[in-house]
Request: fold
Amino acid sequence: MSARGAQDVKTDLWFTSRYDLLLATETMVVVTTGNSVYTLPAEFDHEYSLRVYYGDVRGRAQSGTGQQITLASADTSADDAYIGWYAFTLAGTGSGQWNQIADFTGDTDIASLTAVWTTPDSTTDYLIGSLWHGLIRDDRPFVSYARWGSPQRYRITGNSLTVWPPPDKVYPIVMAWGPNLTRLDDTSTIFLKWLRERRSLFVQGIKVKTMALFDDDRYERELNIYERMKMQYAATNSVLDQTDGSR
Reply:
């Protein structure tokens, strides 16, 4: 495949539709006090949404397991107080993770989680995110905001994310985004999952690229099939962009 136009096929399909939801993923960006600019993943192409989580429950963990975190001993919340909320690790061991809380025992300060994560320990700072709001994209010059607080707006320039106002403390931002298909490693989990679902389309593209290379008489017929498949792919994965503006 690599020798017969695989990269060209990836470029064709990315150009046909950038918004294939099979490629969508989530990343947690930890924004820190007074810092507005952050680097996006190397494969980043476009965002779907950004949510900043916040709340009054912050602290340093006592310990943890693969599916639990023991909150600070100063926590006095009752049983089940945090069920359904999210635990975010902001610094220390296991930083940059989030997990939903399935159960909480007040006597032991243990929050049980819905999924496995890297085990936190006594160096791990956490936030229990009880509230969130979506960030608004703003590609125009920033308007005036209060100097401090949680981020309200964002701008993407190249491979950089800028948030405004600068955070007054550490916050987790969960970003749903789509990668650029041309930049994905052929052995990555995201690409292999996509390839299993889009196999017939990709195989047809490889066939056409190979026929063009060897001047095969069947090229025109197979190219027409490929073009119709791409049109169907584009129609299936069409997304309308939303922008702020005035008239």
